[in-house]
Amino acid sequence: MKLETLEFTSYIWLSIAIAVHVTMFFVKAPFGRHTSEKWGISINNKWGWFIMELPSLLIMLYFLFWGSNSFHSYVWILFVLWIIHYINRTFIFPLRIKPTPKKMPVFIVGNAILFNLMNAGLNGYFLSELATIEQYNQHWLTNPSFIVGIALFFCGMYINMKSDTILINLRKKGDTGYKIPTGFLFEYISSPNLFGEIIEWSGFAIMAWNLPALTFLVWTFANLVPRAKNHHNWYEQQFANYPKERKIVFPFLF
User: Fold this and answer.
1) What per-residue confidence (pLDDT) applies to 88?
2) Is 241 helix (H, G, I), strand (E, B) or coil?
3) Average pLDDT over residues 196-200
4) Angstrom distance (rounded) from CA 50 to CA 41
5) Burial zone of 231 (CB within 10 Å; 0-12 exposed, 13-18 middle, 19+ buried)
6) pLDDT (tens digit per residue) in 49-71
7) Per-residue b or e along 31-58, where b marks 16 or more CB atoms closer than 10 Å to that residue's CB
8) Which helix (H) or strand (E) element contains residue 154?
9) Which tens digits make up the pLDDT trace of 94-123?
């Protein structure tokens, strides 16, 4: 694939992200607390997370070890960061979440697989086949974009994982209902776990500084911001005492 073809594909994929972003403000993704039987066959939520996140991990592992230029520069750092994130999402996170009678629709799993195939495919192919050695050489490691980007990446990962831990620990053994999460960034926003993931991939995009990385960031924003708004609205509907001062996903802003 030539660079021009990859860029054209990325722009098409970006335009779809914008359409999905608008649509998701009106259609709730039916998993987790928003699960609905109207979306057809469903599977165990742990298996659902594993199946839908695995393709992104496998694709990036493939391009890292079998790509043409993955070890000809420091581009392997970007692969490793992506792989660390998806090891957590594929294996660790599904093991940490508690079993729930609410299952995940196969429709959602299938859409997530497409999402991961496209984003990992575009990023993996660019980094291993089209990125130049000069783009990710030793000078890149001291470039402000790398320093700021990697700091944001790990900051976002910490926020995401700490927030997930708080949510997971809300429900004690035998509990079946929902509670209002408190502490950490939950004092300011309803979905700090999603905020952390947006920060994480913003850092990746700044660090990588290429079109596929930007495309993935736009898709992350397009998916997670409407999801966070749905969470926020759900909390307000379920709990009369839900803190009025909490924003949705960006502290003090939205």
Assistant:
1) 96
2) coil
3) 98
4) 17
5) buried
6) 999 999 999 999 999 999 999 99
7) bbeebeeeeeebeebbebbbbbbbbbbe
8) helix 144-170
9) 999 877 767 888 988 999 999 999 999 999
Amino acid at 112: A
Segment 73-79 shows an average pLDDT of 97
Query: What value does the mean pLDDT of the chain take?
Result: 92
Torsional class of 69: left (φ above 0), alpha (ψ -120 to 50), beta (otherwise)? alpha
The structure tokens listed for 80 are: 């490793």
Contact 212, 126 (CB under 8 A): yes
In the block, residue with structure tokens 């960031």: 217
- Exposed, middle or buried: residue 182 (CB in 10 Å: 0-12, 13-18, 19+)? exposed
Distance of CA 140 to the CA centre of its chain: 25
pLDDT at position 43 is 87
Q: 175 near 149, Cβ under 8 Å?
A: no
Q: Which of 15-29, 75-89, 200-214 has the lowest mean pLDDT?
A: 15-29
How far is Cα 189 from Cα 156, in angstroms, rounded to an integer?
15
pLDDT tens digits for range 10-41? 999 999 999 999 988 877 766 666 565 666 78
* Token pair in block for residue 27: 């259609």
Structure tokens given for 171: 């429900």
Mind giving me the DSSP string for 32-81?
A: GGG--GGG--EE-HHHHHHHHHHHHHHHHHHHHHHSSSTTSSTTHHHHHH
Ramachandran region, residue 173 (left: φ > 0; alpha: ψ -120 to 50; beta: rest): beta
Task: Indicate the SS3 state at residue 23.
Answer: helix
Contact by Cβ (8 Å): 36, 234: no
Element (H, E) at 15: helix 3-23
